[in-house]
């Protein structure tokens, strides 16, 4: 590395690593994301109805004892009639009541009454429905003289193992994948956009503070731009490194398998290439912008395109190797995100990896060349935004 | 050896000529003034000397060779569009630029302390640039240009935005640089400063050089002799006096522009015969009037 480029890179790195925004994003954001997933889970578990009473009007006489034995989300209270139950509900003596008609064991129809609409997804409801359904199944099959073991099998008919076969033919049991793994591409991409944002702001700041010309009298525009890109790239790597340590710590604590080393390396390749590609794009934006407001407007449009693949996340999770996703993963601006997600979620065909890396590398070299030409002229433009034709002339040089 | 030698440089922007076939030469130990109205091509020429933009044709030599990384280190430069990182600490900025100019970390720190002490800002080394007054910021800008002890100093409009005290300081620094054998080139609109400071001036307009010479030579060549005469009574008509080129009347006062090589005493004698003279004052053209005259009417 040329010594001036190194001086710029080191200065950019040291200046930006001390920024409050960097520290907040690096440490606080993952924590917020993590908490936003963990807190609702914890909350769901702590929502308890143990002190509440669910009234049961059991006209069959057979369901109530089983419910009392198996259902623990609510305290079960026996109520003789539906009229009495309604009165207790209106007095708020009970949280709700269920009427189990005489023919319930044959027809399987019951009614649940409550003042608050019960979510069908709440664990209390899921458990209740499952227990009642088990009671009906048991009764119907017992009537037919089916042995108890068969009935138990009917209630839990299957057991699924999830096994991923790797390229080497190894079988790896994959229990529930850690959601942190799903977040990895998002984190890597946030880091790219963050470092790109610093690059853009730095260029605009130099323009606004008019420090550019002093710089250009001691250093060439190429040295300046490469110094900035390298310094901020180092910053991105530090950031991702910190996040990786966090993810490794959490996964080893929860004994959840982490992505394989091979996949990790591939993702880092996409990360580095993606960063270099996008930093060239941000350098172009910085070259044609005359103020922070200008640059924010243009980069908002770029960010929109960049985040399109993230909107396809659910589709990619379901089938990471479908043709539409494969094609999208060959278009330069989408390559880093799509490929990071595909690599993470499946065994991507080797040819896809080679082609996407080649396309991204070529696009990156072209973007860097254009950025360097635009930067050389654009950085000295103060106050006047260039027209599209002017920019084309700069590029043709 | 010439410190700067520019031969026939031309620069066009989108077909519009910014600098046209321009040449100049500068020797060491002198102060050069680069004069011209707005948009004359001064900043473009300076940027070409600094290698920030390249001429379309012509050659520029600095210290006898094409501008190189090594020769760049011997130039201190304050551009017209100047500023510093507002959030940076003073010492950090100085060290950063000193390192970019090839000094080691240790030299950078030493020179930064030395200069801050020189301009009385040692106690502000840890202040952020935005906390400094405008005058202090200008001083820091100057230190940035001079921190590596360059032999050639190029200042684009150094007096713009300076209050009288800082203008005086800047002039003193320019003089002291000259005394230590440095070459200084500065562009300016302020003719009185140029007249007082410069050994030599270049006047450029619409990209073309109009004047190139020492202050003495320029004045000798372009200066017009003026005589201001006040009579006791209003006097009119001096057409018969050959020595007078033009006459401007202002009450009892008459401004006379004399032909070249006219003799003041001879004129006085002639005028005394016309009436009672209460005041007779000889004045020569200022650089400013030469500038206006040349730019308006050509050489």
Automatic annotation (TrEMBL), chain A:
Gene Ontology molecular function: ABC-type transporter activity
Transmembrane parts of this sequence: 22-43, 176-200, 229-253, 265-286, 298-317, 324-344, 350-371
Membrane topology: Multi-pass membrane protein
Recorded GO CC terms: plasma membrane
Alphabetically ordered keywords of this record: Cell membrane, Membrane, Transmembrane, Transmembrane helix
Record InterPro entries: ABC-2_transporter_component, ABC2_TM
Pfam families: ABC2_membrane_3
Domain ABC-2 type transporter transmembrane: 20-366
Domain of life of the source: Archaea
Subcellular location: Cell membrane
Major localisation: membrane
PANTHER family: MEMBRANE COMPONENT OF ABC TRANSPORTER YHHJ-RELATED, MULTIDRUG ABC TRANSPORTER PERMEASE YBHS-RELATED
Protein name: ABC-2 family transporter protein
Organism: Candidatus Methanofastidiosum methylothiophilum
UniProtKB/TrEMBL annotation, chain B:
Record-annotated ABC transporter domain positions: 4-231
Enzyme Commission number(s): 3.6.3.19
InterPro entries membership: AAA+_ATPase, ABC_transporter-like_ATP-bd, ABC_transporter_ATP-binding, DrrA1/2-like_C, P-loop_NTPase
GO molecular function, one term: ATP hydrolysis activity
Protein name: Trehalose/maltose import ATP-binding protein MalK
Pfam family, one: DrrA1-3_C
Keyword Amino-acid biosynthesis listed: no
Keywords associated with the record: ATP-binding, Hydrolase, Nucleotide-binding, Transport
């Amino acid at each position: 590395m040329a010594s001036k480029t190194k001086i710029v890179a080191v200065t950019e790195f040291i200046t930006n690593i001390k920024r409050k925004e960097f520290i907040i994003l690096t440490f606080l954001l993952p924590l917020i994301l993590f908490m936003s997933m963990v807190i609702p889970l914890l909350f769901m578990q702590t929502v308890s109805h143990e002190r509440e009473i669910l009234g049961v009007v059991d006209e069959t006489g057979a369901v109530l004892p089983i419910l009392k034995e198996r259902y623990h989300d609510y305290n079960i209270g026996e109520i003789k009639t539906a009229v009495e139950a309604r009165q207790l509900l209106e007095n708020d003596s009970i949280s709700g009541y269920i009427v189990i008609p005489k023919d319930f064991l044959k027809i399987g129809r019951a009614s649940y009454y409550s003042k608050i609409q019960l979510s069908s997804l709440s664990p209390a409801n899921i458990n209740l429905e499952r227990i009642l359904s088990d009671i009906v199944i048991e009764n119907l099959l017992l009537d037919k003289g089916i042995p108890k073991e068969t009935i138990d099998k009917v209630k839990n008919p299957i057991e699924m193992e999830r096994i991923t076969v790797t390229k080497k033919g190894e079988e790896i049991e994959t229990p529930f994948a850690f959601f942190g793994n799903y977040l990895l591409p998002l984190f890597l991409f946030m880091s790219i956009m963050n470092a790109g944002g610093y690059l853009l702001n730095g260029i605009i700041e130099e323009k606004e503070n008019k420090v550019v010309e002093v710089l250009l009298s001691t250093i060439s525009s190429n040295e300046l731009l490469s110094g900035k890109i390298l310094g901020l790239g180092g910053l991105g790597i530090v950031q991702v490194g910190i996040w990786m340590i966090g993810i490794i710590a959490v996964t080893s604590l929860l004994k959840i398998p982490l992505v394989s080393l091979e996949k990790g390396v591939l993702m880092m390749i996409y990360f580095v290439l993606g960063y270099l590609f996008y930093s060239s794009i941000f350098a172009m934006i910085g070259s044609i912008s005359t103020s922070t407001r200008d640059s924010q407007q243009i980069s908002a449009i770029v960010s929109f395109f960049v985040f399109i693949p993230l909107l396809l996340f659910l589709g990619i999770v379901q089938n990471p190797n479908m043709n539409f996703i494969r094609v999208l993963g060959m278009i330069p601006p989408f390559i880093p995100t799509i490929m990071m997600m595909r690599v993470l979620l499946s065994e991507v065909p080797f040819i896809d990896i080679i082609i996407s890396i080649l396309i991204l590398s070529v696009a990156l070299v072209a973007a860097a060349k254009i950025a360097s030409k635009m930067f050389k002229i654009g950085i000295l433009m103060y106050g006047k935004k260039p027209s599209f034709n002017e920019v084309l002339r700069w590029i043709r040089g | 050896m010439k410190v700067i030698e520019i031969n026939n440089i031309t620069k066009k922007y989108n077909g519009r000529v910014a600098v046209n076939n321009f040449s100049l030469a500068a020797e060491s130990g002198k102060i050069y003034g680069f004069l011209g109205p707005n948009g004359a091509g001064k900043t473009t020429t300076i940027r070409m000397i600094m290698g920030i933009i390249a001429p379309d044709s012509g050659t520029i030599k600095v210290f006898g060779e094409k501008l190189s990384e090594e020769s760049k280190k011997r130039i201190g430069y304050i551009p017209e569009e100047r500023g510093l990182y507002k959030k940076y600490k003073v010492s950090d900025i100085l060290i950063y630029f000193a390192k970019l100019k090839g000094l080691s970390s240790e030299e950078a720190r030493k020179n930064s302390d030395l200069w801050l002490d020189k301009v009385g800002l040692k106690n502000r080394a840890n202040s952020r640039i935005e906390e400094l007054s405008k005058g202090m910021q200008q001083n820091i800008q100057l230190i940035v240009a001079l921190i590596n002890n360059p032999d050639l100093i190029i200042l684009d409009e150094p007096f713009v935005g300076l209050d009288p005290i800082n203008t005086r300081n800047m002039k003193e620094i320019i003089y002291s640089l000259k005394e230590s054998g440095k070459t200084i080139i500065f562009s300016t609109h302020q003719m009185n400063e140029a007249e007082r400071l410069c050994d030599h001036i270049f006047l450029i307009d619409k990209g073309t050089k109009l004047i190139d010479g020492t202050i003495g030579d320029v004045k000798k060549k372009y200066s017009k002799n003026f005589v201001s005469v006040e009579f006791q009574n209003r006097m009119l008509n001096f057409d018969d006096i050959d020595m007078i080129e033009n006459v401007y009347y202002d009450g009892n006062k008459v401004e006379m522009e004399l032909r070249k090589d006219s003799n003041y005493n001879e004129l006085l004698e002639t005028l005394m015969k016309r009436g009672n003279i209460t005041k007779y004052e000889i004045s020569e053209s200022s650089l400013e009037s030469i500038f206006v005259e040349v730019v308006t009417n050509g050489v």
